[in-house]
Amino acid sequence: MAQWDQMKLLVQQLQSQTLNDLYPGSFPMDVRHYLANWIEDQPWETFDVDNVDQDPQANRLRDQIVGQLMEQAHKNPNVLEKMRLQEFSKKMNTVQPMALVRTVRDVLRKERQYLGLTGGTVGTGLVGQYHSSPGQALHQPGVSPSPSPINGTQNLARPKCNQDMDNLVFKVLEIRKYRQSMHQLNEEMTWEKQDVESMPSPMQTSELDPQQEKQKRIQQLEYHYREYGKKRVHLLHETIGILKECQDWFIQRIKEWRWEQHQGTIGGVFDENLGPLQNRCEQLLGVNVQLRQEVILVAQDNRSSDPFTEMQNELGKQLKALIQSSMVVDKQPPQVIKTQSKFSTTVRYLLGEKVAAGKPIVLKAQIITEVQARSVGQEGGMASENVGELINSTAILEHNPSSKSMCANFRNMSIKKIKRADRKGSESVTEEKFAILFTADIAIAGCDAACSVQTISLPVVIIVHGSQDNNAMATVVWDCAFSEPNRIPFVVPERVLWLQMSMTLSRKFMSEVGTQRCLDENNLHFLAQKVFNKPDITEDFNTKHVTWSQFNKEVMHGRPFTFWQWFDGVMELTKKHLVRYWSDGLIFGFIGKQHLHVILQNKQNGTFLLRFSDSEIGGITIAYVALAENGIRRIQNIQPFTKRDLEIRCLGDRIRDLDFITHVYPDLPKNDVFGQYYTELGPVQPTTEGYLPTTITTTVVRGLDPSSPPSMALGGDDIQMAAFSQGTQFPVAMPQFSPNFSPSHPGAHGAPIFPHHFENFNLGNIPQNQAGAPESMLEDMLPDSIYNFDASM
């Protein structure tokens, strides 16, 4: 479901009209979602929609779609979804089969185009200043990079390239047939000429002279020989041109594969299988060798090599480019490497099956700087200065018969020391990017001489202490997310659109945590509020730009840490202790106190939700509705639980301990929802030594009671729900729930979904003496921690 995984993130950002155009009524987006795996496995591109002979296959596909929908409806426990699936199956059954095939094919093509365009233009098309690394300027005013070919129009060209490859093989066979036919014609001419020479002198008769017949036959054979020779040379020129096109596509596809591998490090879809590319590489090599032989033979037949020297040179140039482009880093080294620590990497050579027998091929590795990386692949571009000492830096290219691959495995590499460049301004060592360069001299069977082959790893950040890991990873994430496919190493923009940043954060969160549930619009909106220091929940951030400094150089407003340090802490906490809660939709996630008060204000006492703390790194807190002694309903936030807290007692048990929180937002009994996460309590038995067992529970600190919360004052007055005057119209996002949301099984889709529109709520209960409080002060008026909890018996 590679393509739909990406589209699920993108459709949240598309306008309604765009979605209607992309998914027509004859093929709704719901059908695309429910049958994503199956749809992407079908051969839609092989259909000729104008060929009536393929109607039976199209009819079979339509029936399979209907059957798949009915099967899902039968299995689905949710009544609403069951009815929708049945309705979709009836609708699909009324669509003409070939028309449905055409629609599905066009939808998949458009998806690839959208994915390609957003991959290349979002966040960079409006950027006027690019940086080679965050902080190092590389001024290119007005540069607007072209749309990325990755997963876009390049994908649409692949079936044509397959046809070109088939056409290429066919033309090589055709050239061979012309050569064989010319050889046969030449033999016939030789025999005919010998017959003419052995014939007696012609006699003066009225009959047709046999010698003249032979001469006429020889002339015909010579004519056909010349014509075949012309077609043969023409075919050679044409085939060499097609070979160049196919090889250019292959080299571009290798670059795409490397870029997809790069994106895979932050959750992008990546198919690591190199088998198809290796097969294509070997095919191209085989065709090149055959064409070189054909050029030699045609030169011999014409008794002159001069007219065909250009062909030989072109084929030699293509062969060298193919040999040098066929080395890839199959398994990348870690992108953050600590000195004196072991790591591994694997380099694969796609033409390994064709390597000339003889002495083993030794691959050498060395560390290079960003500047040195830019010269790799250029004439005389071998890195000369050694900027680091790499231990265990050589490996042998070894053939694996089972996988038909040839790889060099560097199993115990280590960086002993590193030489850093002079830094400018506020640049940190964790912003400096290096790479590992791999080189070898490789000879291919049937080729004249060995070629020097080079390839480099993805950019790596080298640290000397574990405390630098977080900031180094920020550099890696920014580089992975916002680099262009064919960039100059390792150029990235200094700023990107929030729309692009939000998609990156969601992908990274899903990848790091190991979940299929992405960050929804509410989560992303709050993240934007934090990075831009804008508390207004109605503001649209999609057109705003995020800078590298805002991402991980400047601390957030009122906090001692950067945005990335805080976000990374949340990912770490969720990955280790909260992944099931998050995947089941039980954690609301990133939400500001302003938004929190709006959605909880009318809920019954004891209603709570789980949100990530924004006051400390790696904390989750419980926000709930409580009733004070004076009868005023208030929203309180429990002191955040950190990694250490949840190692002592899990979140489910802590929620069970707190009897004053009763319903999960919006109104689900907590025991129904969290019961599966409670630790089972067996009968209490004395220990073998006679001691009575003890347990740890979460309680409110003495002196504080949920029914009597401490006062939160502004100018001496109590704050109730929010600081607004009576009658204030306040914008609030209205929650909507997906059809399969069920109290008995919230599931991954059980979390509320907020559309990007707002309605007004009247906060009529706010006392008059709180009118006029500045909105910018709201966050300060609502402290993150009201209660302190400890684990006591």
Question: What would you note in describing this structure?
Answer:
The protein folds into four domains: 3-95, STAT transcription factor, N-terminal domain (Transcription Factor, Stat-4); 160-196 and 210-320, Up-down Bundle (Glutathione S-transferase Yfyf (Class Pi), Chain A, domain 2); 334-471, Immunoglobulin-like (Sandwich); 495-677, SHC Adaptor Protein (2-Layer Sandwich), CATH 3.30.505. It contains 22 helices and 28 strands. A hairpin with a 4-residue loop joins strand 9 and strand 10 (405-418). Helix 1 (2-11) packs across helix 7, helix 5 crosses helix 7 and helix 8 runs antiparallel to helix 9. The two termini are 49 Å apart.
Low-confidence stretches: 117-159, 706-793
Averaging pLDDT over every residue, what do you get? 80
Measured between the Cα atoms of the first and last residue, the distance is: 49 Å
Write the CATH homologous superfamily of the largest domain: SH2 domain
Q: What's the CATH class label of the largest domain? A: Alpha Beta
How many separate domains? Answer: 4
As an assembly, this protein is single chain
CATH architecture of the largest domain: 2-Layer Sandwich
Number of strands: 28
β-sheet strand percentage: 15-25%
Q: Helix- and strand-based class?
A: alpha+beta
Short description, anyone?
The chain is an alpha+beta fold.
